[in-house]
């Protein structure tokens, strides 16, 4: 039985997840809380190796192999990092988790949603987020932010950055369907707003959760 609190931040590329996850972790640490900030794919040594393969534009991944890789990453991540952090009473913040698999591999690639749900449960040992913050913005906004950031960075687009606009639109729609189906867990935050105002809303949602849990 976990004693900590599990928060995931989800959304399309460029929606601001990594920035908000980092700011949230800093704010909670400044309050003296024990925080584990992590990400998927990645977060563990095995996961970072999977991530490199997963994002490599030179990797021609079969869709089933893609699902298996991301689930292998999750299984390792949960057992090695998330479950111990939650057992120790930490606030665990993950930049992406199971909803990304449903949105990208399910809605984006067309993988069977029911089967994906079962595989996700297996990989996550049933550890579900207490709160998921879905940072939502139009695909064009997210992609223009990441393109702006990439200016001057001497690297080619990763496997997902190279995907079509249509693919990213299906993924966004997938995230919104998940939020509509689970309003008790997932809260949608408009991430076209300024970085500071998104940050304030994220803090408010997390403070609400922590006070509900008397933490
Ligand atoms: N993936 C999958 O397919 N299945 C799965 O199950 C999982 C993942 C778990 C991970 O790549 C890829 O893996 C991901 C899905 C797939 N690919 N895609 N797309 P990643 O981690 O490298 O990519 P990402 O998660 O999309 O990260 P990102 O591109 O860095 O986006 P972000 O984290 O949402 O954004 P950010 O880094 O916080 O901000 C991007 C820029 O926008 C940056 O310059 C910020 O300063 C700026 N920003 C942020 N917020 C704002 C606001 N509010 N206003 C203006 N500018 C802003």
Unique ligands: ligand Z5A
Instruction: Tally the helices.
Output: 8
CATH-defined topology: Rossmann fold
Estimated structural class: alpha/beta
Return the CATH class.
Alpha Beta
What is the global morphology? globular
Structure description:
This protein has 215 residues and is an alpha/beta fold. The protein has one domain (5-212): P-loop containing nucleotide triphosphate hydrolases (Rossmann fold, 3-Layer(aba) Sandwich), CATH 3.40.50.300. The chain is 55% helix and 13% strand. It contains 8 helices and 5 strands; from the N terminus they run βαβααβααβααβα. The protein has helices at 17-30, 45-55, 63-87, 98-108, 113-123, 139-150, 165-181, 195-212, and strands at residues 5-11, 35-39, 91-95, 131-136, 186-190. Strands 2-3-1-4-5 form a 5-stranded parallel beta sheet, sandwiched between helices. The longest helix is centred in the middle third of the chain and has 25 residues, at 63-87. The protein is globular, with a radius of gyration of 16 Å. The mean pLDDT is 96. The structure holds ligand Z5A.
């Amino acid at each position: 039985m976990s004693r900590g609190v599990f928060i995931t931040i989800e959304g399309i590329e460029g929606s601001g997840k990594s920035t908000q996850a980092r700011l949230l972790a800093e704010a909670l640490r400044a309050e003296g809380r024990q925080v584990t900030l992590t990400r998927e794919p990645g977060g563990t040594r095995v996961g970072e190796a999977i991530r490199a393969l997963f994002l490599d534009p030179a990797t021609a991944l079969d869709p089933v192999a893609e699902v298996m890789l991301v689930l292998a990453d999750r299984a390792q991540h949960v057992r090695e990092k998330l479950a111990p952090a939650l057992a120790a009473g930490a606030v665990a913040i993950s930049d992406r988790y199971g909803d990304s698999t449903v949105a990208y591999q399910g809605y984006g690639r067309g993988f069977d949603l029911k089967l994906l749900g079962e595989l996700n449960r297996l990989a996550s040992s049933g550890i579900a987020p207490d709160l998921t913050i879905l940072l939502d913005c139009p695909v064009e906004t997210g992609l223009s932010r990441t393109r702006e950031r990439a200016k001057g960075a001497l690297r080619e687009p990763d496997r997902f950055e190279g995907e079509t606009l249509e693919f990213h639109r299906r993924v966004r729609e997938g995230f919104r369907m998940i939020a509509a189906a689970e309003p008790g867990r997932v809260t949608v935050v408009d991430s076209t707003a300024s970085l500071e105002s998104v940050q304030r809303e994220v803090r408010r949602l997390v403070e609400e959760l922590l006070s509900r849990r008397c933490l």
